[in-house]
Amino acid sequence: MSRVGKKPILIPENVEVKIEGQKVIIKGPKGELSREIRPEIKAEIKGNQIFVLPQKETKQTKAFWGLTRTLLANMIKGVTEGYEKKLEIEGLGFKALVEGEDLKLLVGFTHPVKIKVPQDIKFSVEKNVITVSGIDKEKVGLLAATIRKVKPPEPYKGKGIRYQGEIVRRKVGKKAATAM
After folding, report:
1. Directed axis angle between helix 137-150 and helix 61-80, to 10°?
2. Which contacts of 32-38 are long-range, i.e. CB under 8 A and separated by 24 or more positions?
3. What percent of the chain has pLDDT above 90?
4. C-alpha distances in Å from residue 116, one per residue of 5, 101, 131
5. In DSSP terms, which residues pair with 114 in a beta bridge?
6. Which among 16, 57, 69, 120 is least surrounded, fewest beta carbons within 10 Å?
7. What whole-number distance in Å separates Cα of residue 117 and Cα of residue 143?
8. pLDDT single digits (tens) 39-97
9. Which domains are seen in the chain, by residue range?
């Protein structure tokens, strides 16, 4: 039995949920999300709650059961509150600009790096902080990881793009290592 999968998901008043076979459609004040769930899992609406139940017994049913429940709960949170990831740019001369709907990163390469924005994701840049926001947790996290991957923080000086609040372990340089 999946401990996570057994918990019901509460549906807020301003959210509308439809289940059509294996497709779940959730509409809320911030937008609409839909997801196809696995054939081993079944979702049902009873009152103002969604119950996720196993339909077929396979080796991965327990894992898919908990995963499906979490994905549906994330969709409901996304259409009501939304998701946001903040990234910090650290380094002399490193900066980010929003050009039209694209993000332009100047992070020490010979050319600027441009990142295209998916339809339902928004960028904002203030000084050295990039904010990625949207209703789909998966897309927001993936885009934030893509931005970080352009120039991850290096361990000697700490230059690069990092998540806000991320701690980068610093290494001791050559001079300090030979002094010992």
Report:
1. 90
2. 32/79, 33/75, 33/78, 33/79, 33/135, 33/136, 35/71, 35/72, 35/75, 37/68, 37/71, 37/72, 38/64, 38/68
3. 73
4. 36, 7, 15
5. 104
6. 57
7. 8
8. 989 999 999 999 999 988 888 888 899 999 999 999 999 999 999 999 999 999 999 99
9. 3-80 (3.90.930.12), 83-163 (3.90.930.12)
